[in-house]
């Protein structure tokens, strides 16, 4: 997939497999050193976290057990304590019955696809074995995660300016581990905080673990009713966030990403911005006016980080799902720092609507068409022949098929790396055109599926 290992507990992702994967990770890291292990609030994550501790320690790694926390908080612990890596037990934004594991290097970046392959080979080699009794790792239950996360964010934000705002905000952590972290960060930054979906619950009863503007209607209405300055909402493991402006309008992730990119480019006098192929054309506009350069990647954090590391002078990266990455922070999305940066932007512009007022308004549509895993490659190959008949200006096949038309509108068809769906993205300056392209893309995917079912 695009990120880590995902499946269902006692089905595709069993405790036994988690032990093998973490033992293989220990071998990958050389069988010594220290790693952090954390987990999200999903009911099945505690079982898998224990399995990961067992596998890692039997492979010779010492484990800093961080308990329940957001994924970026775990990575701040890795960075602060100079650990050799981490395992995060989370299925991120996927439905509550899913489980997952993410593996990280000591630089806080997720393992690359090639590194994942090494772990897979070790797991399926049949030769995995633990270390001797006197070399097994130790486990420390660590309680300093919140303190490390909070201090790290405060070091990177103009705290005095943020506090002078006294912003009134809504925080919606979606029953995730961010319930215990993000409101505290907001208060430390001088915000008056109003909460929604603010108790940790692995069933995600509020609005589910996924993050999309259509799921934030209640949050947006609450923001408007309170006359709040803005709202911040996160996903199920607390690495993605979307913002709602003072008028109750939910901003797409790449609108906010472009806002951050513009500020970083203006602050640093240029630089490279990295984003995946499904990003809005807005980033081209921003880089043109602010003197930046865009480098595109495949979708997913490992691919984004790979491009970030390949080019010098990368100052910021983001993806439209609401992941915002500052390379000097951690190599992952971080709502804590995003919140601080938004407050800095408010100091300058007064409101989120003012900050984005001169952006051209691109209209975007996202649709997920159910598609069995075993048919994804066949569907993609079938689509390759079909999209050339749409009279495109050109086609990009970096990740899926991105069909760009003469008017600048585009249609992207790509198999999800995390769910049994085929994703359809469209964008145009004309909303009707965006709708038409999305419907066209969806019908093409459904037509392809009918060929193979």
Automatic annotation (TrEMBL):
<keyword id="KW-0597">Phosphoprotein</keyword>
<dbReference type="InterPro" id="IPR016055">
    <property type="entry name" value="A-D-PHexomutase_a/b/a-I/II/III"/>
</dbReference>
<feature type="domain" description="Alpha-D-phosphohexomutase alpha/beta/alpha">
    <location>
        <begin position="148"/>
        <end position="248"/>
    </location>
</feature>
<dbReference type="InterPro" id="IPR005841">
    <property type="entry name" value="Alpha-D-phosphohexomutase_SF"/>
</dbReference>
<dbReference type="InterPro" id="IPR036900">
    <property type="entry name" value="A-D-PHexomutase_C_sf"/>
</dbReference>
<dbReference type="GO" id="GO:0005975">
    <property type="term" value="P:carbohydrate metabolic process"/>
</dbReference>
<dbReference type="Pfam" id="PF02880">
    <property type="entry name" value="PGM_PMM_III"/>
</dbReference>
<keyword id="KW-0479">Metal-binding</keyword>
<dbReference type="InterPro" id="IPR005844">
    <property type="entry name" value="A-D-PHexomutase_a/b/a-I"/>
</dbReference>
<comment type="similarity">
    <text>Belongs to the phosphohexose mutase family.</text>
</comment>
<feature type="domain" description="Alpha-D-phosphohexomutase alpha/beta/alpha">
    <location>
        <begin position="253"/>
        <end position="354"/>
    </location>
</feature>
<dbReference type="Pfam" id="PF02878">
    <property type="entry name" value="PGM_PMM_I"/>
</dbReference>
<protein>
    <recommendedName>
        <fullName>Phosphoglucosamine mutase</fullName>
    </recommendedName>
</protein>
<dbReference type="Pfam" id="PF00408">
    <property type="entry name" value="PGM_PMM_IV"/>
</dbReference>
<dbReference type="InterPro" id="IPR005843">
    <property type="entry name" value="A-D-PHexomutase_C"/>
</dbReference>
<dbReference type="InterPro" id="IPR005845">
    <property type="entry name" value="A-D-PHexomutase_a/b/a-II"/>
</dbReference>
<keyword id="KW-0460">Magnesium</keyword>
<dbReference type="GO" id="GO:0046872">
    <property type="term" value="F:metal ion binding"/>
</dbReference>
<feature type="domain" description="Alpha-D-phosphohexomutase C-terminal">
    <location>
        <begin position="384"/>
        <end position="439"/>
    </location>
</feature>
<dbReference type="InterPro" id="IPR005846">
    <property type="entry name" value="A-D-PHexomutase_a/b/a-III"/>
</dbReference>
<keyword id="KW-0413">Isomerase</keyword>
<feature type="domain" description="Alpha-D-phosphohexomutase alpha/beta/alpha">
    <location>
        <begin position="1"/>
        <end position="126"/>
    </location>
</feature>
<dbReference type="GO" id="GO:0016868">
    <property type="term" value="F:intramolecular phosphotransferase activity"/>
</dbReference>
<dbReference type="Pfam" id="PF02879">
    <property type="entry name" value="PGM_PMM_II"/>
</dbReference>
């Amino acid at each position: 997939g695009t990120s880590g290992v995902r499946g269902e507990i006692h089905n595709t992702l069993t405790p036994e497999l988690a032990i093998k994967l973490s033992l293989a990770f220990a071998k990958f890291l050389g069988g010594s050193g220290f790693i952090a292990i954390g987990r999200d609030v999903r009911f099945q994550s505690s079982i898998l976290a224990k399995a990961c501790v067992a596998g890692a320690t039997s492979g010779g790694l010492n484990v800093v057990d961080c308990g329940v926390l957001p994924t970026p908080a775990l990575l701040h612990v890795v960075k602060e304590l100079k650990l050799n890596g981490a395992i995060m037990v989370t299925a991120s934004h996927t439905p509550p019955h899913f489980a997952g594991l993410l593996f990280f290097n000591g630089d806080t970046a997720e393992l690359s696809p090639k590194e994942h392959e090494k772990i897979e080979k070790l797991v399926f080699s049949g030769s995995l074995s633990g270390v001797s009794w006197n070399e097994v790792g130790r486990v420390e239950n660590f309680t300093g995660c919140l303190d490390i996360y909070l201090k790290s964010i405060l070091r990177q934000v103009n705290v005095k300016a943020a506090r002078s705002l006294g912003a009134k905000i809504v925080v919606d952590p979606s029953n995730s581990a961010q319930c215990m972290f993000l409101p505290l960060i907001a208060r430390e930054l001088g915000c008056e905080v109003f909460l929604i979906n603010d108790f940790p619950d692995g069933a995600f009863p509020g609005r589910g673990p996924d993050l999309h503007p259509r799921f934030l209607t209640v949050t947006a209405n609450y923001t408007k009713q309170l006359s709040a300055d803005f709202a911040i909402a996160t996903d199920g493991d607390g690495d993605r966030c979307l913002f709602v402006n003072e008028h109750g309008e939910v901003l797409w992730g790449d609108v906010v990403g472009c806002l951050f990119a513009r500020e970083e480019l203006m602050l640093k006098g240029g630089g490279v911005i990295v984003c995946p192929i499904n990003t809005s054309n807005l980033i081209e506009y921003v880089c043109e006016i602010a003197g930046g350069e865009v480098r595109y990647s495949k979708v997913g954090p490992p691919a984004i980080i790979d491009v970030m590391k390949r080019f010098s002078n990368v100052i910021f990266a983001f993806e439209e799902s609401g992941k915002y990455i500052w390379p000097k922070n951690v190599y992952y999305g971080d709502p804590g720092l995003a919140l601080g940066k938004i407050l800095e932007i408010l100091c300058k512009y007064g409101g989120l609507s003012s900050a984005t007022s001169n952006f051209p308004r691109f209209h975007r549509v996202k649709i997920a068409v159910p598609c069995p895993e075993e048919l994804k490659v066949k569907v993609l190959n079938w689509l390759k022949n079909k999209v050339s008949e749409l009279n495109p200006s050109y086609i990009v096949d970096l990740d899926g098929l991105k069909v760009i038309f003469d008017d600048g509108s585009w249609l992207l068809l790509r198999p999800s790396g995390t769910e049994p769906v085929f994703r359809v993205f469209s964008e145009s300056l004309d909303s009707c055109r965006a709708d038409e392209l999305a419907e066209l893309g969806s019908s093409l995917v459904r037509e392809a599926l009918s060929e193979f079912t």
